[in-house]
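Hey, I'm writing a tutorial for new members on how sequence and structure tokens pair up, and I'd like a real worked example in the thread rather than a made-up one. If someone can provide the structure for the chain below, I'll link this post from the tutorial.
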Amino acid sequence: MVEKLRIYNSLTKKKEVFEPLEPPFVGMYVCGPTVYSDVHLGNMRTFMSFDVVYRYLQYLGYKVRYVRNITDVGHLENDEDEGEDKISKKARLEHLEPMEIVQKYTNGFHDLTKIFNMLSPDIEPSATGHIVEQIEMTQALLNKGLAYETNGSVYFDVAKYNKDHNYGKLSGRNIEDMMESGRALTSQDEKHNNIDFALWKSASPEHIMRWNSPWGVGFPGWHLECSVMGTKYLGKTFDIHGGGLDLQFPHHECEIAQSVGTYGNDPVRYWMHTNMLTMNGQKMSKSLGNSFLPSELFTGNHPLLDEPYSPMTAKFFMLQSHYSSTLDFSNEALKASRKGYKKMINGLRLVKQMEFVEDGTERGEAVVGQIEKIIKACHSSMNDDFNTALTIGQLFNLLKKINSLHTGQLGFSAIGKEVFEKMKSTYIDFVENILALKEENPSDYKEMVEAMVAIYKEAKFRKDFERVDKIRAGLKANGIIVKDMKSGIEWAYEE
């Protein structure tokens, strides 16, 4: 029997058996991009990880409503309550309307999700589309005495909230330490305490993005949008909330406070966080010059990259690590991942072509047991907090059996049709539908290769070995190897 799905809950700091509120329905909210610039690889790792979570939950039979927001207002320069709104600043510098900036980078983000073969969420709401709801939640917190207004801005009163609740329970921070270590901000004179955060900010005359409110013209704070949209589309309490580890504090901590303050209950049952990327052991950052965009990875146009790496190579590399682990980029690791990816895709292409044939071999209970054990381990690995790293290892074990069938070392009758079909469907489902890896070549690429292999076969039949060698060398130069098998001539991606 395969183990039940267990998820590491950042709130309780332990793995828990997943029990949705209203099975088979699952509500999942993931903090989406702030669309003022191109999305970096670290962000894409987060969205890629939750795409796998979404896919696997559906594979298990859950009916998932996946909500991923677009932050298009309220995100200030220092990620707290000071500075200019990042989108407004970009629009002013480029002499564009803010929504032009939003559309440009939203389109770019969507293009990347397609390149990485990710599913679209069921709902993708934006902060600017929910200003009314954000004003309503702010007013509700004022009515409950958990917020206060100063000079047209409204702040959440953390100290007052903490008298009856625990601000810091997600990130493990202590409110007294936070109050002592908080740095001085320009708006400090407006706040009761330095750890209070903005629900609504008064807009200066030059601020481009602004809306009317009961407290004057302004714009919402960054943290408010996710509380509002999560509640609107998934309910006052929902199953899964995800994002990068950098959002755990203050963003997700503030979300909890806002929702508990408004509705009196925790908004989320399972909090999940993806970890950061490093490059050659150092944290990726613009200041260190070791951070790069997906486009730079694909073209190799970066001083730290030896060569270009394809989207599926990058995806395979990231899936080889658990989503909550720090992941270190290096040219050596990426090159190894390219080999692993090609090996897995060769297996996918091969197993799709295979059909069960009775060959009269004697049934081998030992090998049947081995295959059954590997198949069970594939599920167990994913059920262990979506451990794609362990799952990939088990898929390679399954691929060994597939290759043994293909080369004739293992007979089809030795495992039987039922086990064969189970092995085939498991490999295809996990590689193609859960990990969402795919062949990257243009649609006509395989036709071209098949045509060259046909010419190769003809030349070999005529014993034109000079031409045979030229075709083999030409295909190899393009990453294709020709295999002379007992069953015939085949081709594969060079690993």
